[in-house]
Specification:
2 copies of one chain form a homodimer. Chain A is an alpha+beta fold. Chain A is built from 3 helices and 6 strands; from the N terminus they run ααββαββββ. Chain A has a 6-stranded mixed β-sheet.
Chain lengths: 122, 122
């Protein structure tokens, strides 16, 4: 798949919240995944498809999703951007939160090799 | 300025369409600026602040701007993203067009060293 095809597939699968299918079919085994900040003192940068699968599991287990809006993709060369606007409740703390962020993805040989998540700071 | 300060300044100045002030105050002299495609067979990648100033001049001289919406910024580490939704008429062709794209910017030592523009492909 070229960058645009991968990008559209990410939009399609995240709209369905099909996290495992996205990881299994679109991610390179050596994916580097970068959050704005690490949780609990961990590094914001995770390496490898198992780490990304772990993040997906954490999200699915932790969040009650009220709405999940996916916008995009924006595509050029080996890069694409998707915007996520979510309304979730953390099942542990019972805190409800609305978050907007973009994912900046890099594609190589038809697989996502890097993703960076940037929260709204407006 | 840190990444978030540069990002907010980009949003502030592009909302005012203050292109020259943005280039003069926020861009590194060795900026690399990448469009989705090059115009007239040119490379999509331009290097140096003079080339970026030339792009700003071209935009100002060519486009009649009906509306120019700036959303963001989204910020993490050395990277930020801004979304542009524009409605313009090309003064040469008289074609009116609505375009959405994001800019992905990289900051180093308080200056923008790289920008990539990704059009909406949804």
């Amino acid at each position: 798949m070229n960058t645009e095809e991968v990008a559209k597939k990410v939009v399609e699968l995240t709209r369905k919240q099909a996290w495992h299918e996205a990881v299994d079919t679109l991610y390179d085994k050596d994916i580097v995944s970068v959050e704005a900040s690490g949780m609990g003192g961990q590094s914001p940068e995770k390496c490898g498809i198992e780490a990304v699968r772990g993040k997906a599991d954490w999200w699915i287990n932790t969040m009650q999703v009220h709405s999940f809006k996916v916008s995009g993709p924006f595509v050029a060369h080996d890069r694409f951007v998707v915007q996520y606007d979510v309304d979730v409740t953390d099942k542990n703390s019972n805190d409800r939160m609305q978050m907007s962020e973009v994912g900046v993805y890099t594609v190589k040989d038809g697989k996502i090799v890097r993703e960076e998540f940037l929260p709204f700071a407006g």
